[in-house]
Hints:
Elements: E1 9-14, H1 19-33, E2 37-42, H2 60-80, E3 84-86, H3 100-114, E4 118-122, H4 129-141, E5 152-156, E6 174-177, H5 182-190, H6 205-217, E7 224-232
Helix pairs in contact: 1-5, 2-5, 3-4
Amino acid sequence: MRMIRQDLKVLVVAAHPDDEVLGCGGTLIRLKENGAKISVLFLGEGIAARFPYQTSYNSKSFQKMTKIRMNGAKRAMKVLGVENYQFGSRYCGQFDNYALISIVKEIENKLEEFKPNILLTHSPSEVNIDHRLTYEAVEVACRPTMSYIPSEIYSFEIPSSTNWKFDSSFVPNVFVDVKKVWQKKLKAWHCYEGESRPFPFPRSDIGLEYLAGYRGMMCGIEKAEAFHLLRSVI
């Protein structure tokens, strides 16, 4: 079993636009280079948590930031080589206000439509509640009784969420070498205007490189993206 191999269909289920680059951008680039068909399902919009709760969502500022995030995501998709993607409208930081079954059904429908071999999604060990609920919805959608489920399911980490848990349970056991595609991953990340901050913020260029270096040291390479294998059927 190898994550990077020929003739794969890979589905990324991400809470917000930018999670796909942070969690597995380098891996997606490598998969695409190997001929994989990739689809990204964004469940939410990624902006609302930065505004006063339920009072500013019709404001010009909210609409402007939402447009910036969506346009950034589209540019990032081009850098990653991903043509198949769809945006969700759930408010950031508020996935707990939606029935979990609504998220589960959206993922189930995508699985039936796309039929991926591999699914990549969030870890349950996250500060961000949207990330945790995305994981839970994937877990339900991929129960063994379903008519179609991927043969391999992995979770990824998100800087400034996974690493900010008081007691993180994310223990990677799969590593993808991203040294040769690192600059391209950064290029995709830079498409998200205003999302990076100066170091020591984890999502700074330096912070991302430190994390990749740390994960690389865990497996004897220079730069790696780390995953936890949740299920594999061989």
